[in-house]
Amino acid sequence: MSSVLRPALSLIVLMTLITGVAYPLVVTGVAQVAFPDQANGSLVYDDHEKVRGSELIAQNFTGEEWFHPRPSAGAYATVASGASNLAPSNPALATRVTEDTAKEKVDSQGPVPLNLLTTSASGLDPHLSPAAAEYQVSRIAAARNLPRESVQKLVADNTQTSLIGPPVVNVLDLNLSLDRLPSGKAVN
């Protein structure tokens, strides 16, 4: 029996050390050297070097003076991330979308973009389409007493394009840029 048990236990210990200790340490070390910003959470700092969030996770901004992100089924908490799983025929989804439409609606601007009404698959998508950010410009300009053109320029300056996929705007970066304007208010 010991002729079978000893090699089996030795193999378990060896594989645990390789796959549970050595491999994670090597991968972490390589990531810290090659991609330190991404390995540490893609954190966003303000002008005072205070962490304001991550480029990868949405935050809830409320108030008329801020760009609002996509809705989140998990209240922007990473532990509860995920879609709402409500079917299109579910009355709760229709109620939520109707309420969000009433909150985001700007009378002179037509329908609210879907990015401002629908959650992403994770519920934590930090990006909006440029159209969804543009939709909010008038409200923010009025709330902050800024020229509409200044806020539009911020949206254009914060629009990210890549070789694949549509252009996007990171809401946290956009709000931090907005906060740097002379009459901007403090980040919440």
Descriptive account of the structure:
The chain is mostly helical. It folds into two domains: 1-40; 42-180, no CATH class. The chain has helices at 2-34, 36-39, 91-104, 130-135, 137-144, 148-157, 171-180; strands at residues 43-45, 51-54, 127-128, 159-160, 168-170. The strands form two sheets. The protein has a three-stranded antiparallel β-sheet. A two-stranded antiparallel sheet has the order 1-2. The protein starts with a helix and ends in an 8-residue tail after the last helix.
Total helices: the number is: 7
Strand content: 5-15%
The H/E string reads HHEEHEHHHEEH
The major pleated sheet works out as: 3 strands, antiparallel
Let me know the number of strands: 5
Q: Taking Cα atoms only, what radius of gyration do you get, to the nearest Å?
A: 23 Å
Alpha carbon gap, first and last residue: 65 Å
Helix-strand category:
mainly alpha
Show the helix and strand layout:
Layout: H1 2-34, H2 36-39, E1 43-45, E2 51-54, H3 91-104, E3 127-128, H4 130-135, H5 137-144, H6 148-157, E4 159-160, E5 168-170, H7 171-180
Antiparallel strand pairs: 1-2, 3-5, 4-5
Features:
mainly alpha; 45% helix; 2 domains; 7 helices; 7% strand; 3-stranded antiparallel sheet
Q: Could you provide a short overview of the structure?
A:
It is built from seven helices and five strands. It is mainly alpha-helical and 188 residues long. The chain has two domains: 1-40; 42-180, no CATH class.
